[in-house]
């Protein structure tokens, strides 16, 4: 059984009024996020506005919580650091740092979901030194934009097949 089918079964297993909460929960999962969450909710027959809102809220709460934690952790480390850390960043962090240098916070936030989930890119940008406020703003815009795009795709698909 593939993950999309498992997630569909999970959400569909609830009463219609509980599906909003279930969709929020699964939208907090990396690689599901607002885009697959909104799409899944619509394909399962949820009201498109509710499916979109639940998916965006679930993805945003998780992502913003991780950004908050990364920002607090970075501040604590920098406050306690006496000597410069010479450790080598991970390959994922190096990749995000390269994209951050090339595209800035808006570009990484908007294009990041093509490669990595927002739950990874947002906190990593903050850990690499991007201003948390800008990351919150652009990750929020990205989460909404990707949710809208896939909600529209879901509405179109349901309309085309129904």
Question: What does this entry look like structurally?
Answer:
- The protein is an all-alpha fold.
- The two termini are 25 Å apart.
- The protein has one domain (3-161).
- Helix 1 (3-12) runs antiparallel to helix 2 (19-27), helix 4 packs parallel to helix 6 and helix 5 (91-111) packs across helix 7.
- The chain is built from 7 helices and no strands.
- Helices cover 77% and strands 0% of the residues.
- The radius of gyration is 17 Å and the shape is elongated.
Write the layout of secondary structure elements.
Layout: H1 3-12, H2 19-27, H3 33-43, H4 48-80, H5 91-111, H6 118-127, H7 132-161
Helix pairs in contact: 1-2, 2-3, 2-4, 3-4, 3-7, 4-6, 4-7, 5-6, 5-7, 6-7
In short:
By secondary structure, this protein is mainly alpha-helical. It has seven helices and no strands. It has helices at residues 3-12, 19-27, 33-43, 48-80, 91-111, 118-127, 132-161.
Helix content: over 70%
How many domains in all?
Answer: 1
Largest sheet: none
Structural class label: mainly alpha
Q: Over the alpha carbons, how many angstroms does the gyration radius reach?
A: 17 Å
Comma- or semicolon-separated keywords:
162 residues; mainly alpha; 77% helix
């Amino acid at each position: 059984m593939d993950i999309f089918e498992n997630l569909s079964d999970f959400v569909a297993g609830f009463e219609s009024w509980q599906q909003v909460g279930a969709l929020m929960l699964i939208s907090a999962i990396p690689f599901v996020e607002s885009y697959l969450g909104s799409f899944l909710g619509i394909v399962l027959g949820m009201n498109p506005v509710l499916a979109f809102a639940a998916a965006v809220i679930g993805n945003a709460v998780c992502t913003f919580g991780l950004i908050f934690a990364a920002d607090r952790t970075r501040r604590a480390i920098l406050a306690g650091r006496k000597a410069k850390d010479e450790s080598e960043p991970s390959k994922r962090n190096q990749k995000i740092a390269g994209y951050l240098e090339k595209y800035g916070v808006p570009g990484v936030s908007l294009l990041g979901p093509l490669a990595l989930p927002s739950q990874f890119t947002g906190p990593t940008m903050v850990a690499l030194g991007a201003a948390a406020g800008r990351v919150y703003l652009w990750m929020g815009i990205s989460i909404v934009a990707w949710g809208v795009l896939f909600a529209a795709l879901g509405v179109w698909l349901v309309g085309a097949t129904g």
